[in-house]
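Work Package 4 report. The design task specified in the project plan requires that, given a folded chain encoded as structure tokens, an amino acid be chosen for each position. We show below one input record used in the internal validation round.
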């Protein structure tokens, strides 16, 4: 159950958001406040896991409330849900310590997605594209960051090494034609130089992976390369 503080001066909107999160999406315990001053009081009393706040409110606006909260609380995620999303407003919010913005009007599912993304970041969960992560025996290859990791130790790759290995990983256990690799990453006007460069990079990759017997980059003579993974 996510303890959420919703600071919103529009009573109808606050009711809709609270009901949607608690009853339709579920997994939320929502406390509402009608302005920044009430929001400050509720924040002190309930210690929410996340705060969703409007910006333009009577008595105390969202900017003033966030400024006071951030004097002592640097950790609680705060998301502004507002129609005020000009570059100046957005910049002001981030400078005060707001974690993200969602523009009104929004659907509850959109707000729910923003909340979970912010909480994942707070909890240290990496948001990464898993399509760029490959398993190579005991190694994990992160093509986006050009790294090979094994037993907590990371080996950096050059950009070109990572590019070649990515193409091979995406076609693992299948032959990748040399001309396809060369046309993708080299200026093939000088075919001899490009071909020799490819051979050098493949040799380096084999050297890097030599301590993983389950992984082999094989040359299929006259055709191309194949990344064989036996487990």
């Amino acid at each position: 159950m996510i303890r959420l503080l919703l600071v919103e001066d529009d009573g109808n909107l606050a009711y809709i958001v609270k009901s949607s999160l608690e009853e339709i999406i579920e997994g939320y315990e929502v406390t509402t406040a009608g302005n920044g001053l009430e929001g400050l009081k509720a924040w002190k009393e309930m210690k929410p896991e996340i705060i969703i706040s409007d910006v333009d409110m009577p008595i105390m606006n969202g900017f003033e409330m966030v400024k006071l909260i951030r004097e002592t609380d640097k950790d609680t995620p705060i998301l502004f849900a507002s129609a005020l999303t000009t570059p100046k407003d957005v910049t002001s919010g981030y400078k005060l310590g707001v974690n993200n913005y969602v523009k009104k009007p929004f659907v509850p599912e959109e707000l729910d997605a923003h909340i979970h993304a912010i909480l994942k970041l707070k909890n240290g969960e990496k948001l990464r594209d898993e399509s760029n992560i490959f398993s190579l025996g005991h190694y994990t290859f992160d093509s986006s960051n050009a790294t090979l990791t094994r037993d907590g130790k990371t080996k950096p790759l050059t950009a070109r090494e990572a590019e070649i290995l990515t193409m091979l990983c995406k076609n693992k256990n299948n032959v990748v034609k040399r001309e396809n690799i060369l046309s993708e990453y080299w200026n093939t006007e000088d075919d001899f130089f490009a071909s020799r460069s490819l051979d050098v990079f493949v040799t380096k990759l084999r050297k890097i992976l030599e301590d993983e017997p389950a992984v082999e980059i094989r040359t299929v003579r006259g055709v191309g390369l194949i990344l064989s993974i036996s487990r």
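The chain has two domains: 2-122, 130-229. Validation will be extended to a larger panel in the next phase.
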